[in-house]
């Protein structure tokens, strides 16, 4: 790993720590990227190409994007007709609750509420708040690893002047703005959501789809709402990159526009779990 020229970080919650260590030890800079959604994928590819500043690589990236986008736009236009204006909710780990908002936007869907289970403030508000984060009981339970420069292998990939020049062009290093700046003012950010809060949100906002992990799947579906598992590809996928975006558009289209959900009734809607009467009756 010490021979790499750049680290591209997809998940800010976990891999950013490893990227920081690699930069300290070997001098490898890191940038935040996102390959979920066509627009985010194109932006990330251009960012990587811009870092290396090689005309042939930049040209290859632009040609590749130009080749992929017509099919993307065709499928997106078809799906957007049926999905535009519908609401999505996302409560997943890593950066997924943020990463997937862009791809929902591409088909006209709005993320009305999102959050994480194990997030820190910088995941929500961006790395600018890191210096203000106070150590709490949970943080003390995590072992802190001290990494030092490897004097035999440390090699800065760019000079300070080159890094400043790239930053002036929009290539930022060790930076992440967080999820909240990309969300509309009338949306909700909820950390470590409970089952009760989940049920109330579904009842109030009636989202077209709820995205979470496997443990929420059946409870959400019993509410008559399709649940998309984003922790792994238990069905469908992959969703990264250009072809992945098409897969996601089509799968969300099938899920939110299926008529089966309106006919679904949870067991407790048909028969109460317990029946009783007052003793004096």
From TrEMBL:
Stored InterPro entries: Nase/OxRdtase_comp1, Nase_comp1_asu
GO molecular-function term, one example from the UniProt record: nitrogenase activity
Q: Which Gene3D superfamilies match?
A: Nitrogenase MoFe cofactor biosynthesis protein NifE, C-terminal, Nitrogenase molybdenum iron protein domain
The protein in question is named Nitrogenase molybdenum-iron protein alpha chain
Indicate the segments forming the Nitrogenase/oxidoreductase component domain, all copies.
2-256
């Amino acid at each position: 790993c010490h021979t790499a020229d750049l680290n591209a970080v997809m998940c800010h919650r976990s891999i950013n720590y490893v990227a920081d260590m690699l930069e300290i030890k070997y001098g490898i800079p890191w940038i935040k990227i996102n390959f979920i959604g066509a627009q985010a994928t194109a932006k990330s590819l251009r960012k990587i190409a811009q870092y290396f500043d090689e005309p042939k690589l930049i040209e290859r990236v632009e040609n590749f994007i130009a080749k992929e986008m017509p099919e993307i736009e065709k499928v997106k236009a078809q799906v957007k007709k049926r999905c535009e204006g519908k609401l999505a909710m996302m409560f997943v780990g890593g950066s997924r609750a943020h990463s997937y908002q862009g791809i929902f936007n591409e088909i006209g869907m709005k993320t009305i509420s999102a959050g994480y289970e194990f997030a820190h403030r910088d995941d929500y508000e961006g790395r600018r708040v890191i210096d203000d984060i106070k150590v709490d009981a949970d943080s003390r339970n995590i072992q802190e690893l001290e990494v030092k420069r490897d004097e035999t292998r440390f090699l800065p990939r760019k000079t300070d002047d080159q890094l400043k020049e790239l930053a002036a062009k929009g290539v930022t290093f060790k930076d992440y703005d967080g999820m909240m700046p990309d969300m509309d003012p009338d949306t909700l950010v909820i950390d470590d959501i409970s089952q009760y809060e989940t049920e109330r949100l579904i009842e109030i906002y009636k989202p077209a789809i709820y995205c979470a992990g496997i443990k929420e799947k059946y409870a959400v579906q019993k509410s008559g709402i399709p649940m998309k598992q984003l922790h792994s590809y238990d069905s469908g996928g992959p969703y990264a990159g250009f072809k992945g975006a098409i897969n996601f558009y089509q799968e969300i289209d099938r899920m939110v526009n299926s008529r089966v959900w309106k006919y679904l009734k949870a067991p407790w809607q048909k028969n109460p779990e317990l029946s009783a009467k007052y003793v004096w009756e």
